[in-house]
Amino acid sequence: MTAPRTPKIPYGGDYDHAPEPAHLTAHTTATDLLTGKRVEESEPLTLDPLGVVILRLQPMVTTRAQDGGVPGA
After folding, report:
1. What is the reported pTM?
2. Which of 3, 6, 52, 54 is deepest in the core (most CB within 10 A)?
Protein backbone atom coordinates (compact mmCIF):
# COMPACT_ATOMS: atom_id res chain seq x y z
CA MET A 1 0.00 0.00 0.00
CA THR A 2 1.30 3.45 -0.86
CA ALA A 3 0.50 6.71 0.88
CA PRO A 4 -1.51 9.24 -1.11
CA ARG A 5 0.54 11.96 -2.73
CA THR A 6 0.24 15.42 -1.29
CA PRO A 7 0.20 18.07 -4.02
CA LYS A 8 2.93 20.66 -3.81
CA ILE A 9 1.32 24.08 -3.57
CA PRO A 10 3.66 27.05 -3.92
CA TYR A 11 3.23 29.86 -1.40
CA GLY A 12 4.89 33.19 -0.87
CA GLY A 13 4.57 35.92 1.66
CA ASP A 14 5.94 39.16 2.96
CA TYR A 15 5.45 41.44 5.91
CA ASP A 16 6.03 45.10 6.65
CA HIS A 17 7.85 45.64 9.94
CA ALA A 18 8.05 49.40 9.40
CA PRO A 19 5.66 52.05 10.74
CA GLU A 20 4.95 53.23 7.18
CA PRO A 21 3.30 51.40 4.23
CA ALA A 22 5.47 49.10 2.09
CA HIS A 23 5.15 49.21 -1.71
CA LEU A 24 5.81 45.91 -3.51
CA THR A 25 5.30 44.46 -6.99
CA ALA A 26 3.90 40.97 -7.59
CA HIS A 27 6.44 38.84 -9.48
CA THR A 28 3.80 36.29 -10.55
CA THR A 29 0.03 35.81 -10.57
CA ALA A 30 -1.26 34.69 -7.17
CA THR A 31 -4.25 34.64 -4.82
CA ASP A 32 -4.12 36.58 -1.55
CA LEU A 33 -5.14 33.96 1.01
CA LEU A 34 -6.26 36.58 3.55
CA THR A 35 -8.57 38.53 1.23
CA GLY A 36 -9.27 36.06 -1.59
CA LYS A 37 -8.24 38.73 -4.12
CA ARG A 38 -6.41 37.66 -7.30
CA VAL A 39 -3.11 39.46 -7.73
CA GLU A 40 -1.80 39.75 -11.28
CA GLU A 41 1.87 39.58 -12.28
CA SER A 42 3.51 43.05 -12.10
CA GLU A 43 0.58 44.42 -10.07
CA PRO A 44 1.64 46.89 -7.39
CA LEU A 45 0.85 45.86 -3.81
CA THR A 46 0.76 48.10 -0.75
CA LEU A 47 1.13 46.62 2.70
CA ASP A 48 -0.20 48.60 5.64
CA PRO A 49 2.26 49.46 8.40
CA LEU A 50 3.04 46.20 10.23
CA GLY A 51 0.90 44.42 7.59
CA VAL A 52 1.29 40.96 6.10
CA VAL A 53 0.41 39.22 2.81
CA ILE A 54 0.24 35.48 2.16
CA LEU A 55 -0.01 34.48 -1.49
CA ARG A 56 -0.83 31.17 -3.14
CA LEU A 57 1.15 31.26 -6.36
CA GLN A 58 -0.60 30.13 -9.51
CA PRO A 59 0.97 27.17 -11.33
CA MET A 60 3.05 28.12 -14.33
CA VAL A 61 1.79 26.77 -17.63
CA THR A 62 4.31 26.16 -20.38
CA THR A 63 4.01 25.08 -23.97
CA ARG A 64 5.86 22.08 -25.33
CA ALA A 65 8.27 24.47 -27.08
CA GLN A 66 9.06 26.15 -23.74
CA ASP A 67 9.57 22.98 -21.71
CA GLY A 68 11.40 21.01 -24.40
CA GLY A 69 8.56 18.53 -24.68
CA VAL A 70 9.35 16.97 -21.30
CA PRO A 71 6.15 16.23 -19.34
CA GLY A 72 6.08 17.89 -15.96
CA ALA A 73 8.99 20.19 -16.75
Report:
1. 0.62
2. 54
